[in-house]
Specification:
two-stranded antiparallel ribbon, alpha/beta, Arc Repressor Mutant, subunit A, 2 domains
Length: about 210
């Protein structure tokens, strides 16, 4: 289990502040309604954020009404934005490192359990982690299943499968999904009832 004290990759005030500051910096004419939609807060809450930014000297507001308002980051506001950006990137790096290590350990365990060649059923982000985790004594990934009509892992060096029939003739021992909750998606893709209880081996990277 990945257990981190997340402030930016969770609904935390630091994340909201960073998002609002970025949006203001990108477009000084952005409305509070648009900010609320983008950040996932109420207009009243965004208004409170703006007022707090102004009182802290982070944002300057100009205009007489909602249509004419313009918001500008002060030097202090830009400094806070950069600080929040550094924190955000550091958190992403920490989470990626933990996910990378967990995936590598799980792949080695599957290899020891006899899984040598596998097809991956995962979203693009996880497919990239699996690709980056490649090492000795891990199953060889021989392809990736395209999920929900979207092409998975555009940069991953594997064949893409969009139909179950495309797996015919492929030499593989099983399918690796992200979670056990993905097993039903594997069954639907195969279209023949195969799955963890069927003839085809299906494993999960995470419980």
């Amino acid at each position: 289990m990945i257990d981190l004290d997340l402030k930016f990759l969770a609904p935390h005030r630091m994340l909201r502040e960073y998002q609002v500051l970025c949006l203001i910096d990108d477009d000084s004419a952005v409305s509070q309604h648009r900010l609320a939609e983008a950040v996932g807060l109420s207009s009243a809450m965004v208004n409170n954020y703006i007022k707090a930014f102004v009182s802290r000297g982070l944002v300057e507001a100009e205009g007489n009404n909602n249509r004419s308002f313009r918001y500008y980051l002060t030097p202090q506001g830009r400094e806070l934005k950069q600080s929040r950006m550094s924190g955000y990137l550091a958190e992403v790096a920490r989470l990626y490192a933990m996910a990378h290590n967990q995936v590598a350990r799980r792949l080695k365990a599957l290899y020891r359990q006899g899984l040598r060649r596998a097809v991956l059923f995962a979203d693009p982000a996880l497919a990239c982690i699996v690709n980056d985790s490649a090492a000795d004594e891990q199953p060889d990934i021989v392809g990736v299943i395209v999920r929900d009509g979207l092409e998975s892992a555009p940069n991953a060096p594997w064949p893409r499968f969009t139909k179950a029939a495309e797996l015919d003739g492929i030499d593989f021992d099983g399918i690796i999904a992200c979670h056990k909750s993905d097993f039903e998606g594997v069954r639907r893709f195969l279209g023949n009832g195969s799955g963890p209880e069927g003839a085809l081996r299906v494993e999960a990277l995470f419980d």
